[in-house]
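dude i think i finally got it to work??
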Amino acid sequence: MLKILKYSFYDLIRSRWSYVYFLFYLALGFVLLFLNNDVSKAVITLMNIIIVLVPLIGTIFGVMYYYNSREFTELLLAQPIKRTSIFLGQYLGVAGSLSLSLILGLGIPFVIYGLFRSDAIFDFTLLLVTGGFLTLIFTALSFNIALSNENKIKGFGYAVLLWLFMAVIYDGLFLMSLILFEEYPLDTFSLTATMLNPIDLSRTLILLKLDISALLGYTGAVFKDFFGTNKGFLISFTMLALWTILPIWRLIHKAKMKDF
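look at this
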C-alpha cells in the first residue's frame, strides 16, 4: 500500500494541476494578507473560501484520478496485491498531495507575514486541519462514486452534484425548513442537520474557535448554547473524524465486492 501511495502521490505532485492548485492558494494568501495586513481577518476570509473550494477540488480530483488510472489499477489487480492496499494507496496518495498543496500554498505567505508572532496561529492551524478533513472526506466520497459508476460521464456528474448539494442546495433546504417550521422547537433538528453536512460542520467548528458571535448564525449559536464552546468544539471534531472514517470504510468494502 505504501508503494502505491508513494507512486500516486508523486504522480499527482508532478501533475500541472497540483501546481495550479498550489499556486492558487499561494497567490490567494499573499493577496489577502496584502489587502488586510491582519492575519486574523485573513483567516476569517479564507474560511469562507476553503469550506467551499476544498470539497470541490477534492471531489473533482478524486474522480478524475480514478478514471484516468483505471488501466493501471486493472494491471495492479492482476498482481498478487490486496485490493484494499491498491485503493487505499491511491486514495491516500490523492488526498495527501491535495492536502500538501493546501498547507504549503497557504502556509508560506502566512509564515512570511509573521504567523508565528501572531495570536491567530491556532486559528490558522485549525483552518488547515479543517481543510485537510474536507479533502479526506470529499476525496473518499468521490472514490466511492467512481467505484459505483463505470461510466465516466455519470461519475463526474454525480460527483459535481454531490458537491453542489452539500455546498449550496443543502443550506437552502435547511433554511427553508427553519422558516416553515419556525413555530416549533428546532434546536435538536438544527444540531442534527449541521452534523449531517461536513461543510456546515467545518464552518461551525471554525466559528466556535474564533468565537465570533456575529457570524455564528442560528445553527452556530444553537451549537454553542447547547454544548458550550469547548464541548461543541470537541463534538464537531469527532463528527468530522466520523465523516472521514465512514466513506473510507465504504471504499474498502466496495473495492472488495466490486467485479472488475
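The first helix runs from residue 2 to 13.
im so relieved honestly
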